[in-house]
Amino acid sequence: MKRYDLIVIGAGPAGLSAAIEAAKCGMKPVVFDENARPGGQLFKQIHKFFGSKEHKAKIRGFKIGEDLLKEAEEYGVEVVLNATVIGLYPEKEITVRIGDIVKHFKGDYILIATGASENMVTFKGWTKPGVIGAGAAQTMMNLHHVMPGERVLMLGTGNVGLVVSYQLLQAGCEVAALVDAAPRIGGYGVHAAKVARCGVPFYLSHTIVEAEGEEAVSGVTIAQVDEKFQFIPGTEKHFDVDTICVAVGLSPMSQLLKQAGCQMADLPGGYVPVCDEFGKTSIDGIYAAGDVSGIEEASSAMIEGRISGVVIAADAGYLSEDEKQQKCDELEKALGGLRQGMFAPKNRGKKLETTEEGIRLSESLLTKGYIADDEISRYPGFVKKAGVHPVMECTQNIPCNPCQDACPKGCISIGENITSLPVVVADKECIGCGMCVASCSGQAIFLVDETYEEGYASITMPYEFLPLPEKGDVGTALDRSGKEICQAQVVDVRSTKAFDHTNLLTIKVPKDMADKARFYRR
């Protein structure tokens, strides 16, 4: 039986981060993963991450995955793929199926970073071909470059449902609607807004009645539900679709920890091991990190993994107590930054009415996916100035500040609190470089110039669809709700390496549309 200093189960963001940190300290870890390639969910995530520089903000998930793998190779982390761990025992022994052979390994320390699996909801016809998880749709699109369907209905408006809906649009699919039994959108408002302005409707307090079709999905019927989640007769709505995507949450894959005899807790976020702040379970030498110990973003999982890697290295004698404390303090500060704001764990399930600044939240954003015209002016990022200037439609306290760092002239300020709403600095002059637009992970920043031409304004917006429009093209401007409002002419298209595939599209619209036009349709 082969023995390792540290055995990590799961080569996702948490597992790789833990192994890297332990290897930096001199340990010899091995990472087992059941998949054919390492990186976990990161390689399906083509969107830019939130947070700050230390959280990999404005970097796309797959690029973060590439960097992690490069770092793991640099520090000599051994990664064994197509290796399914089928047993974990209190003595820190594991059994692994590699191909057709079951092998036994023993570790001085074990870290479980198996992540989470998609939840499913049952409805009439839910087993038909064409009903898939949102994660499966991401895998098809972003790993295998296959369209999941032509016309899709998304069930679920958490971040996964919102992000995958946008990626479906990018892949060329038509998204018929987003549906959720909850009365409010569950994910970030900026994610909802970029879907809504593409013309996709939201149906809150609705859910699926039936997936229709003989051999595969050919349509779907939804209906409104009451406060007890019972269908309201007469509210049925039908959509012709060939695919139904389900994004109704994740469940921690904690079976190995339970098998080992770790103390477990049945919490609202799932069945998870009882851990301390370092990921230590009730069994000495067995740790957990990432979604297996509670569902959060990948940024949090990576930091959790690094904390566990540091603590394991210290427990094994590779770090002094002072070194451990210094590293953990830095990592915990970074993790604490991600656990602030409206979507912090402490606020889950709460019906918040105002921002941290005391500004009333947009009810339209929470129920329809877009900020109403009579609501947007209450937020500090929405300003009117002579000449070109940023307009930031960021209206929720999300831990994110790349826009502040991106502006070379200091036109944007968030301050020390990473969850504060961005403001436009009055005495700073915007040069129209567009770095703030490109850096915004929520695609919520626009450059507006109401004095572009006599009677016309220009609007520079983020644009991540192909084929790109060309200068001189004439199309249609859409407002925040996705409604067509006026003719728009493309006056500039900018694509540079610094923008990282977020193209800047500048359109010319009538001056009275400057505060409304937020998307361009070819």
Automatic annotation (TrEMBL):
InterPro entries referenced in this protein's UniProt entry, alphabetically: 4Fe4S_Fe-S-bd, FAD/NAD-bd_sf, FAD/NAD-binding_dom, Metab_Enz_Cyan_OpOx_G3PDH
Domain of life: Bacteria
A molecular-function term among this protein's GO annotations: oxidoreductase activity
Domain annotation 4Fe-4S ferredoxin-type: ranges: 384-417, 420-450
Keyword Transit peptide: no
Alphabetized UniProt keyword annotations: Oxidoreductase
PANTHER family for this protein: ANAEROBIC GLYCEROL-3-PHOSPHATE DEHYDROGENASE SUBUNIT B
Protein's name in the database: 4Fe-4S ferredoxin-type domain-containing protein
Source species: Anaerostipes butyraticus
Species lineage: Bacteria, Bacillati, Bacillota, Clostridia, Lachnospirales
